[in-house]
Amino acid sequence: MRLTRADADPTLAAFVVARAPLHYTDGADESLDRPAHVRAGSSLAWVPGGIALIQDDANFVAVLEPDGVRVRAIALPAGKKGRRQFDTRRGNKKHRMDLEACVAVWSDNETLLLALGSGSSGRRERVAIIRGWEADEFEVTVVHVPELYDTLRRAEAFAGSELNVEGVVQLGDRLRLFGRGNGEPRAGVQPINATCDLDWTMLLAHLRAPDRNPPPSPTSIIGYALGMLDDVALSFTDAAVSGDVILFSASAEASPDVLRDGPVTGSAIGVINAEGRARWARLTEPTGAPFLGKVEGLLVDTSAPDRLFVVVDADDPDAASALCTVQLRGDWGE
Hints:
There is one protein chain. The protein is mainly beta and about 325 residues long. It contains three helices and 22 strands. The strands form three sheets. Strands 1, 2, 11, 12, 13, 14, 15, 16, 17, 18, 19, 20, 21 and 22 form a 14-stranded mixed sheet that branches. The radius of gyration is 18 Å and the shape is globular. Strand 20 and strand 21 form a beta hairpin. The longest helix has 9 residues, at about 145-155.
């Protein structure tokens, strides 16, 4: 495994210029166990009709316009006792799918949105596939793929001490996964931020028929030493392709392991260029003061490549996730 060091680059800057709390246009729906607001937004992807946003503790995909004014909901299958919201207060947090990474892939003349569970526990080894974007008539399939996650977990250079898939991007015929290194050390194995590649054709075949087609093996594993913010280690939370580079988000969260939240000291936006060089800048307010939110999702604004959309997770079931606009300064394409 190659280990890449990513340092803060003082020539780069990323600052939040707007934020919009996300509330469903149609409000709450008790029959679907849908709240009035988007809860823990965890990843973003462009789809026909807008931006798809997945949530780690609510079984809904939100579809929103970039200004956050109109927000629709696609219901995913309900969990235990018909619930679609999961948190400590309800006592059912362990039952959530923990969807943490998503990507839109063009396949067989249609867009497929793949939403991946983190794999941080056996209950979180599912992949949701949403199709029908072109016709605005959605078909949702949730596939249990423990063999895929077991394959990732056994690739210790990628998974580290505790597997936690947090981001995914498409690179030609491969999907690149981003693993978050916020686990607890176990049996001498340390947590690690890392990426690996999966063959898309093999992965799709496995998702369509897990019992007949084996999962792809992870290849091209690269570990990353991301550094710290205020003495708290940064770890990957999402990624997006922008031209020839990959942009990533990382948050500094003092979580004891992959299952529990912790205090957040801030977030960073980083870039990995075509040669593999990695750099980052602390996310700030326009004044230069640190932005203290936990960025969980990242997307490049297609109309302005120096502008991003990020979603912030407050780790509070009563608080609406916010879609923030981030302006970049400096040479992020280098």
